[in-house]
User: Fold this.
Amino acid sequence: MVKVSELFTSIQGEGPYVGYKQIFIRLCGCNLNCAYCDTDFGIQNSHDYTIDELINYCKLNNDVHSVSLTGGEPLLHTDFIKEFSKYCKLPIYLETNGTLYKQLADIIDCVSYISADIKIPSCTKNLPMWDEHEKFFDIASGKILFAKVVFNNEFNSNEIEKVTNLCKKYDIELILQPQMKSGALNVTSTEILKYLDLCLNKYKKVRLIPQVHKFLNII
Assistant:
């Protein structure tokens, strides 16, 4: 049994797999408290699901690219991920904040794709987590992996240096995602292009992809 705040089928709205149809299993709880987070992953509105119920849902909706385990932070549920992966015939796409490297090591063989955030303090208002991210990418680098950075107009040169160096070390694609607030971009188009160029000056595998599902008004 696992607590799920949302179970639905839709398109992936973020990162290089944008537009692909996926099953989304949104798990409850998170180890971080990012200032920009707009996702309801609390247990107060959750539902309990058995593995069998989730597998049956996947069987009925198997015209998808993969199953996204998202949150919250799905790596708080490693026992579930291990059990679910035994029976799920679809590829598993892990959407994670990229900090729980020990938990990732426990389930690394269960997933096919990893979408890992790099949490920059200027936007999250959390403490820096550069060491945690590096240890995470060290474990994740054998999988299909990309990094995603949510940024606003406080994105600074020190963060740009650290983010691009980290992606360069592991030769992974870096997705810049402008912060959105109330359905609208929280960064001007001029600033967005400025930050894209600053990152490209440091590392060439950089793409700018906003939250497309919000523009399309799709969950």
Observations:
- DSSP finds eight helices and eleven strands in the chain.
- The chain has a mean pLDDT of 95.
